[in-house]
Write a structure and sequence with these properties.
- It is a single chain.
- The chain is of the alpha/beta class and about 475 residues long.
- Helices cover about 40% and strands about 20% of the residues.
- α7 packs across α8.
């Protein structure tokens, strides 16, 4: 895999430079999302990370669903040049990585500060709009009230005004002193950074930096700096949010990883007014992610387990979606739905030691195929064993069109091709294309279902496949 060229953290004219961490295999989903949601440019990725430039504010950045965490980019460059195993030389290289370009740190911190200030201003405007000031007293009433004031009250008012004016002068002087001191400290910090950069060639230059936040300031500022060093690249960044983007406040009981659930829903291309079914919904994570993103849809979740449905109901209630999603206790191989009545099916097919579906995976897919209408899509999360069984049981003679002309969608190669021209991105892209195309090499498992896309993703200790099928014709044909 080729090395990553230097990419400083300086802010371009078109926006700030960010990167997100992502689960392995979810990089293509995140690339699509930042382009669509943030109008991002210069989008590229390396394994586990997506880099992009955008002018979006914090409110929009918070809406990213397929990312784990978001960072402001300080540096992205070639790996450290460690030609010796000497620990001293390695530490020297790390020191050079940090202090060679102080401007990149200052630019990133300035961008981070501007984002927070803009977000704070918007919050104040929102609060003012939500709590408008009381109606002013009419002008005539004010004039009449002034006429009724006695000389004694006027004297008291004047004395009070003098006291208030004195207090205001003192407070203004204190604030001025505070801001003056703050400006001095900021200037001193910048001078120290510049001096350190000028003195980088001095042999006696050593330093140790330790940062810890606690108390009230820890709720606003994070002391973390993201550093990832390996044989391919060196990346430095500042986390934008304290809480990871993948942590959903609206999910009470976690089931499937939220980023995986959102990726499944996004691949289904849900449209307003559609009938979306998850016939093995479990705790309802997929339906929650879908309903939050695409609300104007009829959602139904089905499961055979009482405990899973109770957990799903609690999640829907906590997310305020219990009126958006209907839950049914039924078997996935005997759905109480008319044939060709469902627009989209999305499901995480259970697997692991507790679930031994074996040959049942074919029966499950047959029932899904029955209730899906022509032109509809099925998006499934399959274990490697389930995926292999479906490929081994393929019986149809309808091949997948290499140009995807029957769906009108771009090919897998185009979807996975990163926007940048970094060697690493191209190499990783080719690797992902190969693993995705591996799922599409053979004919579809049933007569009316044709595979459209397939992505190998990581679930932590295990891998799985996100597979999309489209129904081309009725079963009778």
């Amino acid at each position: 895999m080729a090395a990553v060229p230097t990419d400083s953290g300086s802010r371009p004219a078109a926006g700030a430079r960010f990167f997100c961490t992502a689960g392995r295999g979810l990089e293509p989903f995140l690339m699509r999302e930042v382009r669509a949601r943030l109008a991002a440019t210069q989008v590229e990725y390396i394994s586990g990370k997506v880099f992009f430039t955008t002018c979006s504010d914090l409110n929009m950045l918070k809406k990213l669903k397929s990312a784990e965490r978001l960072f402001l980019l300080i540096k992205k460059q070639f790996p450290l040049n460690v030609s010796s195993v000497s620990k001293g030389k390695i530490l020297s290289e790390i020191q050079r990585l940090i202090n060679d370009d102080p401007e990149s740190w200052l630019n990133a911190i300035s961008t981070w500060k501007n984002l927070l200030e803009l977000d704070a201003k918007k919050d104040k405007l929102f609060q003012r709009a939500a709590n408008p000031p009381k109606r002013k007293v009419e002008e005539n009433d004010i004039i009449n009230a002034k006429k009724l004031k006695t000389e004694q009250s006027q004297e008291l008012q004047e004395s009070g005004e003098c006291l208030l004016e004195k207090q205001t002068e003192e407070e203004t002087q204190e604030q001025g002193d505070f801001f003056t001191e703050r400006e001095k400290s900021q200037e001193a910090f910048q001078n120290d950074v510049v001096k350190a950069a000028d003195a980088k060639n001095q042999k006696d230059l050593t330093f140790r930096v330790s940062c810890r936040c606690s108390g009230a300031i820890a709720k606003t500022f994070t002391a973390q700096i993201f550093i990832h060093l390996n044989d391919i690249y060196s990346v430095l960044g500042i986390p934008v949010f304290r809480i990871p983007l993948a942590s959903r406040a609206y999910i009470k009981t976690a089931g499937l990883r939220s980023t995986i659930a959102w990726a499944l829903a996004s691949l289904a291309e849900i449209q307003a007014g559609a009938f979306v079914l998850d016939p093995m919904c479990g705790l309802g994570t997929i339906l929650l992610e879908a309903a939050k993103e695409w609300p104007d849809v009829y959602y139904v979740g089905a499961d055979v387990s009482d405990s899973q449905l109770l957990g799903a109901y609690d999640n829907l209630k906590a997310a305020g979606l219990k009126n958006k999603i209907e839950l049914l206790q039924v078997s996935v191989i005997d759905l109480p739905l008319p044939s060709e009545s469902v627009d989209i099916i999305i499901s995480d097919i259970p697997f692991g030691k507790k679930f031994k579906l074996g040959e049942d995976i074919k029966s499950i897919l047959q029932e899904m195929e029955r209730v899906l209408h022509v032109g509809g899509a099925i998006v499934l999360l399959l274990s490697e064993e389930h995926h292999r069984r479906l490929k081994d049981g393929e019986q149809s003679s309808i091949p997948l069109n290499s140009k995807d002309s029957h769906t009108g969608e771009p090919s897998i190669k185009k979807c996975l091709k990163p926007g940048g021209k970094t060697g690493t991105s191209e190499t990783v892209s080719s690797s992902l294309e190969a693993s995705s195309q591996e799922c599409l090499d053979k004919t579809p498992p049933f007569g009316s279902l044709v595979p459209v896309e397939c992505h190998k993703v990581s679930l932590g200790r295990t891998d799985a496949f996100i597979c999309k099928y489209r129904k081309l014709h009725s079963l009778g044909l």
